[in-house]
Specification:
single chain; alpha+beta; Butyryl-Coa Dehydrogenase, subunit A, domain 1; Butyryl-CoA Dehydrogenase, subunit A, domain 2; Butyryl-CoA Dehydrogenase, subunit A, domain 3; 3 domains; four-stranded antiparallel beta sheet; about 50% helix
């Protein structure tokens, strides 16, 4: 397998890295956090101008025909700076729903404002009782009076506090644990009640309540009750993107730690000269490179035609990424000493993001169990 990047992919990587390096110094990130949205709308417009918001979509839909590798490169660069913008929620999660499930007329309605940055989307699927079971959906969709009515609640909707539209999973048939009977709807944010809040890593989320929200037939994605396969696909592609982001987070945390070890002096010499600490820094690097390999594996398999093989690969990557992120984050904190847990030190923020990535779509223990139950990797 050829792992070399094409000239276009190298150019994309350089452009995204340069843009974020110029706009995401640690102090700038603090300013974005303190804004009303919790992220930079000006930078979001720059993402649109660069074509990043249209990256994975077909040219026929106004996109740029990018693939899984292009998404991996973009997410890794965003991980390096702890980007706060709703790229994962809008382009990866909601975007996959639309490009994989929406019909041409729906894509013509919803993709242009997404691609040009006028609207952001959020994927409202997680429910409080579901744990990591994607099929456990209790929000109900009832068809009455020529339209759908949604009743229920979604928790921890990533970037749901500022989203203009939600892609909502709701049960139109079956019992609350059945894989069948789940439908996906696009709902305007003005029609719901939501409570926004900051998460431990500084990103935003919301709990969203649907109290008889009316949804027209043309806002139903796909056939009623047949969306579970699409939800599984969204989760697998999302986990591959998170793995790439985690690699960027870990890489930058390691770089910051090496810089600190070269500058911090103890007993009259830099702590980087102590062999025991050098060994710990090398162990971090080994874990990062193995995580990079797993992120590449998940990326290559994310478009696989066989759902079972795709799911096995995404679970394997998620299981390893979670363990590697915890190890690298803990080592970075410990090698910084007490300053590593302060708000003024960047490395603590990197560790927080790694812990958040671990729990999204299932933590390392959950996915290790899935891999073990499924048997050997393809």
């Amino acid at each position: 397998m050829d792992f070399d990047l094409t000239p276009d992919q190298e150019l994309l990587q350089q452009c995204v890295h340069r843009l974020l390096a110029d706009t995401y110094a640690f102090d700038q990130r603090k300013q974005y956090l303190q804004s009303d949205a919790g992220w930079s709308r000006a930078l979001w417009r720059q993402f649109a101008e660069m074509g990043l918001l249209g990256l994975p979509f077909a040219a026929a839909d106004g996109g740029f025909d990018g693939g899984a590798v292009e998404i991996m490169l973009t997410m890794e660069s965003m991980g390096r700076v702890l980007s706060l913008e709703p790229y994962f929620a809008t382009v990866i999660l909601a975007g996959t729903c639309l490009r994989r499930g929406a019909d041409p007329a729906q894509r013509a309605r919803w993709l242009p404002p997404l691609i040009d940055g006028r609207e952001t989307f959020a994927f409202a699927h997680v429910e409080r009782a579901a744990r990591y079971d994607l099929a456990r959906v209790e929000t109900r969709a009832q068809y009455e009076g020529g339209a759908w009515r949604l009743h229920g609640r979604k928790d921890f909707v990533v970037h749901g506090d500022t989203a203009d539209k939600f892609i909502v999973s709701a049960r139109s048939g079956g019992e609350h644990r059945d894989a069948g009977g789940i439908s996906l709807f696009v709902v305007d944010a003005a029609a719901v009640r939501r409570r926004g809040y900051s998460t431990q890593d500084g990103t935003r989320a919301a709990d969203v309540i649907f109290d008889g929200v009316r949804v027209a037939d043309q806002d139903l994605i796909g056939a009623p009750g047949g969306s579970m396969d699409l939800i599984d696909t969204v989760a697998d592609i999302g986990m591959a993107a998170l793995a790439a982001e985690a690699v960027g987070v870990m890489t930058r945390a390691h770089e910051l730690t090496i810089e600190y070890m070269k500058a911090r002096k103890q007993f009259g010499t830099t702590i980087g000269s102590f062999q025991a600490l050098q060994h710990r820094a090398v162990d971090m690097l080994v874990m990062i490179e193995q995580a990079r390999s797993m992120a590449m594996y998940a990326t290559m398999m994310s478009e696989h035609a066989d759902p079972a093989k795709r799911r096995q690969a995404s679970s394997a990557a998620k299981a390893y990424i979670g363990r590697a992120g915890r190890f690298v984050g803990e080592q970075a904190i410990q090698l910084h000493g007490g300053i590593g847990v302060t708000e003024e030190c960047a490395v603590g923020h990197y560790y927080r993001r790694l812990t958040m990535i671990d729990v999204l779509f299932g933590d390392s223990t959950h996915h290790l169990t899935r891999v073990a139950n499924a048997g050997e990797l393809p």
